[in-house]
Design goal:
With 456 residues, this protein is α+β, with helices and mostly antiparallel strands. It is built from 10 helices and 19 strands. The strands form 4 sheets. Strands 1, 2, 3, 4, 5, 9 and 10 form a 7-stranded mixed sheet that branches. The longest helix is centred in the first third of the chain and has 25 residues. The chain is globular, with a radius of gyration of 26 Å. It starts with 30 loop residues before the first strand and ends with a strand.
């Protein structure tokens, strides 16, 4: 397989998410020719919010311009395909295997022709939503985007070959009809073509964007690629130490930071300890609310200074948790359930009490399971790179970079287009609320007055 082109340094215009996040969309899949590309030509399947005021939708702050890198699918003149997804890889490798299979079937191309997968980064990927839904909503979006994209070459081929669209067939990226044939690459060569895919939703919400409309998708009976086994081409880089992990990220002139945490949950800061300037003359303590951090010019000094500060930092007392052995007794007898919010799934339906009362057979039992923490499998890291123009790039290992981007913008009091989140391989974890995302803490201790990188 060709080398994965992750485009870490590729930055287009970052979208802003200030208004109209829930605007409804119409179906739109028209092509527009925009001149010759020196790269040889391409078909870019981008996204746009098309509301009732269509004229304003093109310049909406929610719009990701399809002429920029933010798009789901791109077909190139060499007959290769690029796909982008807001999902990240947490060891499942589905974005490099299953996603390529799904797109290959919808586009009628080979698995191997999808040579580039761009995951996660907020400035180069389109759809948001957490990686926890990798093979759920994520599949639906990508499949619909690919189905929309599949129609575009058919329209072009119909004109190029002079054959009705319904008389064309496609196999491995080659369109045939009327005794003639043309490849996808030949159709887009020398052209810049934009396909608009309709979406609704909010990039920074838990579910991100949703592709709307009903493009013609392949029935399962016509799948040729999905269901087959393919080699996971990112494994060699990991076992040969060529993979870029989040801990490998460095920028020139960066500082190092360590957070000082209380030993117990729920503790509040009383007073932060001070740095011993004789031992650590170049270290400084940063306090923001209940967060305490130590910033130093070297990692070892940050570690040593943070230990000294931690020993002198005072926190409120902790009432304690019941321990695993007493957990269920605590739930039944001591827990304050009055303050607990009632949660109900939006997909819930019916009346549980009525259903149980009407059941022909009833079974009563108590089942207890131990608490399973959504914990990291190892230590992680984050890097906040503050630029002189006010933009902040956070390099991290995160399941939902678009949501983190929104949270960071809110914390900093800036618009979201000032924040870029880039994701990398890391220790992995299960679930979003695991304490493993150091990006927000890293950003909290980053100095605004002196732009530079902070590595935590």
């Amino acid at each position: 397989m060709p080398v994965w082109k992750l485009l870490r340094n590729c930055r287009g215009g970052s979208p802003s998410l200030d208004t109209d996040g829930q605007r409804g969309c119409k179906v739109s899949a028209q092509l527009s020719r925009r001149g010759f590309l020196q790269t040889g030509g391409s078909l870019i399947a981008g996204i746009v919010f098309l509301g009732t005021e269509t004229g304003n939708a093109a310049t909406s702050n929610n719009t990701l311009n399809a002429a920029l890198p933010e798009s789901w699918v791109a077909i190139h003149a060499d007959n290769t395909v690029l796909i982008r997804t807001g999902k990240c890889d947490f060891g499942q490798s589905s974005v490099y295997t299953a996603y390529r299979q799904i797109v290959a079937d919808e586009l009628d191309v080979t698995f191997e022709s999808i040579t580039t997968v761009v995951p996660g980064d907020t400035d180069t990927t389109p759809d948001g939503c957490g990686t926890f839904d990798l093979l759920g909503r994520g599949v639906g979006n990508l499949r619909k985007a690919a189905a929309y994209t599949h129609q575009a070459p058919l329209d072009l081929a119909s004109q190029h070959l002079g054959v009705a669209k319904d008389q064309l067939s496609v196999n491995e990226g080659v369109v045939s009809g009327g005794g003639k044939r043309v490849t996808y690459g030949e159709l887009v060569k020398g052209q810049s073509l934009k396909l608009t895919i309709p979406v609704t939703g909010d990039l920074t919400s838990i579910f991100g964007l949703t592709v709307t409309g009903d493009p013609p998708m392949k029935p399962v009976s016509q799948y040729k690629v999905v269901g087959k086994s393919f080699k996971n081409s990112i494994i060699p880089a990991k076992v040969t130490a060529k993979e870029v992990w989040v801990t490998d990220v460095k920028v020139p002139g960066m500082l190092h930071a360590r957070m000082v945490h209380p030993a117990t949950l729920g503790s509040k800061l009383i007073a932060a300890g001070q740095v011993d300037k004789k031992r650590f003359p170049n270290s400084q303590v940063v306090v923001k609310g209940n967060l305490v951090g130590v910033v130093a010019p070297t990692e070892w000094e940050a570690i040593q200074a943070s230990r000294q500060v931690a020993a002198a930092t005072k926190w409120t007392e902790w009432k304690g948790l019941p321990g695993n052995g007493n957990l269920f007794r605590y739930f039944r007898q001591d827990a304050d359930w009055k303050s607990a919010a009632v949660s109900r799934s939006p997909k819930s339906g019916g009346d549980t009490s009525k259903a149980l009362a009407a059941a022909p057979k009833k079974h009563s039992a108590t089942y207890e399971m131990p608490y399973m923490k959504h914990a990291l499998l190892g230590p992680t890291m984050a890097m906040a790179d503050v630029k002189s123009d006010g933009t902040v790039t956070v390099h991290t290992h995160n399941q939902n970079p678009q949501a983190l981007r929104g949270q960071l913008a809110l914390m900093l009091g800036v618009s979201s287009d000032k924040v870029i989140v880039k994701t990398y391989s890391g220790p992995g974890h299960y679930g979003p609320l695991n304490g493993g995302n150091a990006g927000a803490e890293d950003e909290a201790v980053s100095p605004r007055s002196r732009p530079r990188g902070i590595r935590m």
